[in-house]
Amino acid sequence: MQNHAYSRLGISGTGAVVPSPPSSPRRAWGRRASAKGGWSARASADAGWGGGAVRRVARAVLAALLRRQAVFLFAPLLYVAAMLLYMGSISLDSVPRIIPRPAPGSMYRSPQLYARLRADMDADNATDALAAVWRHAYRGGVWRPCISNNTNGLPESNGYIYIEANGGLNQQRTSICNAVAVAGFLNATLVIPNFHYHSIWRDPSKFSDIYDEDYFIERLKNDVRVIDKVPEFIMERFGHNLSNAFNFKIKAWSPIQFYEDIVLPKLIEERLIRISPFANRLSFDAPPAVQRLRCLANFEALKFSKPITTISNTLISRMREKSAENNGKYVAVHLRFEEDMVAFSCCVFDGGDNEKKELDAAREKGWRGKFTRPGRVIRPGAIRMNGKCPLTPLEVGLMLRGMGFNNNTAIYLASGRIYKAEKNMSPLLEMFPLLQTKETLALDEELAPFKNFSSRMAAIDYSVCVHSEVFVTTQGGNFPHFLIGHRRYLYGGHAKTIKPDKRRLAILFDSPRIGWKSLKRQLFNMRAHSDVKGIEIKRANESVYTFPCPDCMCRSNK
């Protein structure tokens, strides 16, 4: 007990003083302040009464914040409020304006580029691209087209197929070739297709007006039965009205197996079926026997009618005369710059209110409500950057001159009525004064029988383009799709086609600082790339109308 009492006093049992443990700093500070006359006396001596009050307030606020940490959540709000008060005191007139710059390739500046480079272009006219434009040849081995003759007889027919071919010239051509393939696969008799009148093309032409009907039937006789009209005994069953026949509504790109499983039983039952519409109703991917019939119809059986063939041969001869300096070689350009194409693209060219009013009216007339429905957003700049705008005549001229075609090159222009032709065609004629069209090559009386028929006029363009040395396509569509394949078929596997990279062109033609030499170098490379692409290299599931070779090199889409 005695030792315990001593320990409480800090004295050991032996009489030695034992040090006590250190006290809390907070308590020690208070005691030290009190021992020296208290906190008040110390504060008055150091900083006076005011300084002590500030410290007490700060200590109280800090203690409150430590106890209520959620108060810190209001700190950002206080900061924002202070910034708003500060910004409100600054005049906006002193803040610099940020002017957005259009993305490269989003603006139509080709006229300015042409004006700036024209002198250099005219001075550089020595290159002759026609002499060396085509350096590559088919490299897939021995060229073997997709057609082989059939010498076997035909079994008894399972019935009659009647189709309605819709669209323009080449969409109708697709329908005809697919109908031949389906009829042959089903062992049916094909009735000469009926051409559906369309409000856009406004062409009432029949099959025999565009194609040689007798030759078509004769060329296919060993493979597919073709007749010019439905037999009388069949028509009696349907009251002499084909609309009473069973009409199949077939989905686009249906496989050939669908026809065998679904269409064939109905054909055998009814003896006559009708398929309307029929464009693009058969998949590109099909067995070799079906592809062979497609090729046979497209490249051998479909020959233009005698009037179209006669005037086409006349224009081809005149083009070769115009290009005598180049040994009769000429360049064919398919230009899609008609008003409906320009309007449909939704691109901006020269701009201004007049252009906008004209093209808005054309869009409303041709596609009522399609471009003005709620929620539809049209971005002309993005469309141009993606290469979706049709090339103008001026841009075609710039491209060809940059690719090395000099102003002595004879150009055949395949086109409809050019939008604002007088204005837009002027720079192209300056760059290529030997440019011709079917209207300039033919006499008025020679062209008169065809002028009011868009499909017949397109057939003339098609024929002249097929026999050109180089074909230039400026926009997608069925016309170049078929023509490229036809030229591959005729020229041993090489398309001899220039298909420009329009995304790259949009950037080049929108470059404010590019010089002629730099532009020409870029376009030379583009031409060389087109040359390589012209070789028969097929993609998986590609159309046999574009790649008419069953054994050609195949490249996956992946």
TrEMBL record:
Family to which the UniProt record says this protein belongs: Belongs to the glycosyltransferase GT106 family.
Organism: Zea mays (Maize)
Lineage: Eukaryota, Viridiplantae, Streptophyta, Embryophyta, Tracheophyta
InterPro entries: FucosylTrfase_pln, GDP-Fuc_O-FucTrfase
Gene Ontology MF terms: glycosyltransferase activity
Name listed for the protein in its UniProt record: O-fucosyltransferase family protein
Alphabetically ordered keywords of this record: Carbohydrate metabolism, Fucose metabolism, Glycosyltransferase, Membrane, Transferase, Transmembrane, Transmembrane helix
Keyword Cytoplasm: no
GO terms classed as biological process: fucose metabolic process
Transmembrane segments: 71-92
Region span, Disordered: 1-35
Transferase is among the record's keywords: yes
One Gene Ontology cellular component annotation held by this UniProt entry: Golgi apparatus
